[in-house]
Amino acid sequence: MDETQDATIVSLDTVVSPDTVNYITANFIADFIAEDLRTGRYTYVHTRFPPEPNGWLHIGHCKALIVDFSMAQQFGGKCNLRFDDTNPEKEDSSYVEAIKRDVRWLGFDWEDREYYASDYYEYLYDLAVRIIKKGKAYVDDLSEDAISEYRGTAAGDKNNGFSLKAAIINTPPGRNSPYRDRTVEENLDLFTRMRQGEFPDGAKTLRAKIDMASPNLLLRDPVMYRIRRDTHYRTGTAWCIYPMYDFQHPLSDAKERITHSLCSREYENHRPLYEWFIQEAEVFPSRQIEFARLNLTHTVLSKRYLLKLVQEKYVAGWDDPRMPTIAGLRRRGYTPQALRSFVTQIGIAKNDSMVDIAFLEYCLREDLNKHSQRVMAVLRPLKLIIENWESDREEELEAVNNPEDPAAGKRRIRFSRELWIEREDFAEVPPPQYYRLYPGNKVRLRYGYIVTCTGFDREPSTGAITAVRCTYDPETRGGNAPHNQKVKSTIHWVSCGHAIPLEVRLYDHLFQVERPMEVPPGGSFMDTLNPQSIEVIPTAYGEPCLGEAALGDRYQFERLGYFVRDPETREDSGGNKPVFNRTVGLRDTWTRTIKKIEKKKADFS
Ligand code: ATP
Ligand code: MG
Fold first, then answer.
1. Ligand with minimal distance to 84 CA
2. What mean pLDDT comes out for the span 164-183?
3. Which of 52, 91, 503, 543 does the annotation list as catalytic?
4. Which ligand ends up closest to the CA of 52?
5. Do the Cβ atoms of 586 and 561 come closer than 8 Å?
6. For the CA of 264, the nearest atom of ligand 1
7. Tens of pLDDT along 482-496?
8. How far apart are the first and last CA of the chain?
9. What CATH number does residue 198 fall under?
10. Do β-strands 205-208 and 561-572 pair in parallel, antiparallel, or remain unpaired?
């Protein structure tokens, strides 16, 4: 299936509006379902989420999950988890486990309704026989290549409505296979022998007899079964023929008495086929309804493309924090709440759109801001020496854990003569509008004192600055302490004698361009990968409490962004160094974009 991201970027000013928050419940799918219940087409609602276990789930699946589960819930129905596992070459039980873990983490509960299309092989086989007996399917000896050549190629091959329209006008009819008119008896005999393993892989297929002149190429006698000797992760070698997706999917839905089979838009052209199989197999009439696929800028959302990144080792695995997979986002520090809020606010539309990744980050910040404990950490350390502080003197200062949440309380942090500050918070010669430390200037040390820079030390051979010197004013203790000095800047710090070393990883977009799938002919989406999507800082320093952080604990490092404890730990001479991933920076590019748009609008009106 072609799932290129050829949609327009979601208009920035339509997304963030209070009206869209409830968009999941108020959407066209809900309207269809309500109408179906009103007319009596169905008396209940039952949906399913049908991943193929050939990769890990991504954020697009979060949208599908929300649609499937929320529609069931809204109408008092149920939602199944079904693995569409009919491709032995690509599927694996490790994928099943990863998918289940991620669905659960996102907060969806399928209870005991866990199904596998591979459990339906016998049932599907019987339905294929039923269709053969009606004269509606035949065994073909043409090769895969010959089949597609006979079928013809046209713009209609693309899975979107526009090219279908073009196809209706432009496509010449396909040609019938010379085996199309085999008798029912011959077809039944050959199909039985296909199952028994009499023919080599690829020697024969079972095809639906529909319409070789259809403008929709998918209806030109699609393949229902192929011969493939491969060990399936669940059925082993019990079968050497495997059903194709378009045949398997509607009939699996029917078996589970699914009422509304909700799927993304790349299946739109498959709908007539979905209905044809249901009708010819004479099974429960499930109904397919499509919604817009989620596309995000600067990434790709399709398992098969993500698999390529994993296989070719552009990322460290499916859960690499740069991946748009649920596991990658979790390791990066995303919360289920942020992901669900993002999808809910975008809403469900019919037309595909491309959503700015800045909006996802905005939803994330909204959530993290409320719940993350604040701490101080220094990524690029430079020593600050307070000359009028005795070398063995220590003091405890009080720091607020979360200004958004008074219940989070306060903590005590150690202050001493030597501190780590950020290298960029000192300038030998200040650039214009620089209010941080430079000789003669004052800043406040967060939660601590106001200090005045008195000078700095230089390494004679290299000229590098090795330490900054200052004096403190004892009258200015604590952020809110009364004092008569005003400073323009507050900087963060940690005490050299108390801070613990950390490894910190900073991330950037995985792809340099907004739409990696839109590459010039002959190119690949891989060409647009960002070679600088990760920066590792081997030795940063943080407050000692970070040493006790559990995996997945989230923090705001003041002035630096939101960070999460990674499962990895680094060996260090002084013990083990915890690893922290930057989830997202503090700067909100989204609101700025919106403001810019609003300003432009105002300028024009
Ligand atoms: P593949 O590349 O293997 O086709 P996929 O990413 O499309 O992988 P599927 O297993 O085909 O994943 O999809 C499972 C379900 O999730 C389907 O119902 C599909 O419609 C839906 N889905 C997949 N991708 C998206 C997306 N980007 N937005 C919304 N729904 C999606
Ligand atoms: Mg797909």
1. 1
2. 80
3. 52
4. 1
5. yes
6. 20
7. 556 789 999 999 999
8. 44
9. 3.40.50.620
10. unpaired
